[in-house]
Amino acid sequence: MIFVGDGALLWRAVRHARADGHPVDLVCHGPRTTPPPGFAPDAARAVHSGHDLEELAGELTARCTDGLLWSIDNPFLFREKVLASGLRLLNVHGGPLPSYRGLPPVTAAYAVLHGETSFAATLHEIDAGIDTGPVLAEARFPVDPDAVLEDVLSDLVEAAHRAFTDNLAAVADGTAGPARTPGGDPGYYGLAEGLELAGMRDHPRYDQATDLGMFADYYPDAAAAWG
């Protein structure tokens, strides 16, 4: 299997897959992290954009031994060649679908702003849209009324890892699913919505929704815009 993503959550998933005996043929990681000690250099590749992944599409297909590509904390959009590679593309998304498509720090911020009592990480198939593919599973968790964004993001990291670990074996042996089209009102929370949040300082939940805490260093642009 191939992994594409960035950050600690990516390498946590890679370590789990290897420990469970699954083949990890290649990890395409972003610039924020480097492979952990002991990880074979030829099993990792640094990428900086979706265009970089497009150039690797042929290699991804050739190197993948089980036909699975996992997107874990992945900042890059898959483009035409990767989408048409014949690999089964799966993403762990930081938010329940379709209501909270978009960037995890922004989806979680708006969940707090909206007073949601629960939130979730979602495992779904990848299609040409953004977080629009059929859903395989959801890992849901409660949100306390006094929770701040840091709390929700912490729980979301654990939920994302659980969505991966709880379904890895079933995806690998072909028994996961059936995939379903999620119901509910669609919503999207991307970069523009994150910038719009900075103009909502009069909202009674604004301070809760923008308190990144220990995640401020990981999302410096959001911290600067909301601070």
Automatic annotation (TrEMBL):
Residue ranges annotated for the Formyl transferase N-terminal domain, each copy included: 82-166
Bilayer-crossing regions: none
A Pfam family hit: Formyl_trans_N
Highest taxon, organism lineage: Bacteria
Identification of the protein by name: Formyltransferase family protein
Species annotation: Pseudonocardia alni subsp. carboxydivorans
